[in-house]
Amino acid sequence: MAIITLTSDIGQQDYLVGAIKGQLLSQNSGFNIVDITHYMSQTNYPQAAYICSNAFKYYPPLTFHIVILNFFDTTVNHLLIARHKGQYIICPDNGILTMITGEKPNEIARLPLHGQHTLLARTYIIAKAIEEIVQNASFAVDTETSIDILEKYPLKATIGPDWMEGQILFIDNFENVVINITKEEFEEQCNGRAFSILFTRDEQITAISNDYAAIQEGEKLAWFNSAGYLEIAINKGNIAGLFGLQRYNEKMNKVGMASQNKWFYQTVKIFFQG
To answer: Would you state the pLDDT for residue 146?
Structure first.
């Protein structure tokens, strides 16, 4: 039976996640429902894209991914269903689709909301649409190949001849910090040169470790995590809290809510020598 993942910003302190699962199971009791997370930030699309893109790629073809992110930021009359690399993504038309996929999918359908304004009314429409696709074994909900959608794309590191600057994408439960610099991007720019990873005005890391066991407890390290992104941490410590590092927040910075120091601590610079 179909696998359905749930990713949202609604938390798990009330009945909503359970009710959404009930709606899906009422449509088809054979659905296999998996939680990704329900604690995404409504305003941090880069973080949501990092979580979704790196989780979704491990699921088998024909998995349905429901992304409930900032559902009520604007008045809308539709959601999006996209088929991308054999999997389905159902989400608001607020830019998160292309943030997750890195490109505009070739197959996108609008899912009309028929004037429904509450979360559970909208997720009921999603549940019925998934069951329709499963039963018909085809992508048959008003599929269009060239509809206009709001497009946003993942943040990219800024690169110069002897430096890189990345933004903090994610801070995990241990307060380890993930930067939007991939291993491939780093190695291409580094090209065998010595380097310094500067994450505050006077704190730096000058080597890449293979794992946490490579350093002593309490020492700083940089390594490339399971998703292939640069991560900085303190072995058995909390680097984000200790040094005041914060997730990059595009919305806050656009409206000028971040001070100069706060901006600095949302970014990490790498300098190359030689």
So the answer is: 64
